[in-house]
Amino acid sequence: MLDPQSSWPFERPEQLTDALREQGATPEERAELLPTLRRLSEWQAPQPSPADTRHLLARLTSALPALSPVRQAIREQKLRQRTSIAFLLAMARTQVSLFGLGFWLVSALITLIGAGVVLSKVVSDQDVVLRASGPLLAYLGTIAAFRGRDARVLELELVCLPSPPQLAIARLVIVLGYDVGLGLALSLVLWAGGTEQVLALTLSWLMPLLLVAGLALLLSLRLSIQTAASLAYGIWLAILAITTTSHLQALLLAPAREMLLGCIGLTGLAIALLRMHTAMHRLLPHS
């Protein structure tokens, strides 16, 4: 066996012979190669000067392509995929499994209860029921979609290929898409039940939902997602209680102003997504 403490070139002929034997050389080949290898130990490699190194790098650089066409084509294809609607929808499909069965059932149950209360006319002010139950779906959806931060798995989510805004958009597509679908189902149920002003009732359910979702995501840049969602929903309930017990309901919660609330919520979602990159260092846990 070779001496592990010896250096190359080998100091003794026995070491060279052992090295050739380990490489599978026959006795004839070892006898032929041994003098050549011993000559190598006497050869002194010339030391290149800085000028020689620069000359070699210049020759090699000129032989290399300035930009790989293959890599450029792959990079452009990935950029097109990441900015396409199909890519976001495909990513949203992969994120569906993160939402448990309880989220789907509880959201549907809240919508069903709201429709039942409106159809049965148990409460005289039907708008209040929908304005309180719609944002509750945004509260549940926000917590379910972004619970990874509080579960201390945000670092694992960031390892994924999509960027944090892309992940957020994909999950918002799931949550808001499901909530809008429930809103459409609510409209059909109210229409089939002969309820008047179905569109106004649907807006009173959907617009506050968007407002609470946007406010919750915006506050989550500074607070935990549980605190942000609870605070957003609590603020809306306080506003709803004040307007209901005063004479401001007709002024502040008119259909046109409710549309404005929905636009404010969508604006909050857009601002939160744009600022997510710069706020990411605050979202990661600190040791």
TrEMBL record:
<feature type="transmembrane region" description="Helical">
    <location>
        <begin position="231"/>
        <end position="253"/>
    </location>
</feature>
<feature type="transmembrane region" description="Helical">
    <location>
        <begin position="259"/>
        <end position="276"/>
    </location>
</feature>
<feature type="transmembrane region" description="Helical">
    <location>
        <begin position="128"/>
        <end position="146"/>
    </location>
</feature>
<feature type="transmembrane region" description="Helical">
    <location>
        <begin position="98"/>
        <end position="122"/>
    </location>
</feature>
<feature type="transmembrane region" description="Helical">
    <location>
        <begin position="167"/>
        <end position="192"/>
    </location>
</feature>
<keyword id="KW-0472">Membrane</keyword>
<protein>
    <submittedName>
        <fullName>Uncharacterized protein</fullName>
    </submittedName>
</protein>
<keyword id="KW-0812">Transmembrane</keyword>
<feature type="transmembrane region" description="Helical">
    <location>
        <begin position="198"/>
        <end position="219"/>
    </location>
</feature>
<keyword id="KW-1133">Transmembrane helix</keyword>
